[in-house]
Write a sequence for this structure.
């Protein structure tokens, strides 16, 4: 099993910055991909950024150039540095970890509890 704990959310003004952290514990060696998702009220949960165990990174178009995903394997932590924040970035941000072996029946999907990010205009 994998446990994920997010922190770092808060209230900031437009143009400000926040850094989210996600600490993973448990069977972290089994994780293929980690990512940050967000969900605003009345909206679908969307992928913000992801990073694979090999270091491959993807970003949603809406955050490219503003957000940076990274990891520190030494402390089992993933980060999301968010700069130039906009009101439309307001959402609950969730840490996600996936284990996706060839047999889809063995796929595992883990979620943190979420951390609120509010960007005021």
């Amino acid at each position: 099993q994998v446990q994920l704990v997010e922190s770092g959310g808060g209230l900031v003004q437009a143009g400000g910055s926040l850094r989210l952290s996600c600490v993973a514990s448990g069977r972290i060696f089994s994780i293929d991909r980690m990512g940050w998702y967000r969900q605003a009220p009345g909206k679908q949960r969307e992928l913000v950024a992801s990073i694979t165990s090999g270091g491959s990174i993807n970003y949603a178009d809406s955050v490219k150039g503003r957000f940076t995903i990274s990891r520190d394997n030494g402390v089992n932590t993933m980060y999301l540095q968010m700069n130039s924040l906009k009101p439309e970035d307001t959402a609950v941000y969730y840490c996600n970890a996936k284990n996706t072996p060839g047999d889809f029946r063995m796929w595992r999907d883990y979620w943190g509890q979420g951390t609120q990010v509010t960007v005021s205009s």
Observations:
- The chain has a mean pLDDT of 95.
- The radius of gyration is 14 Å.
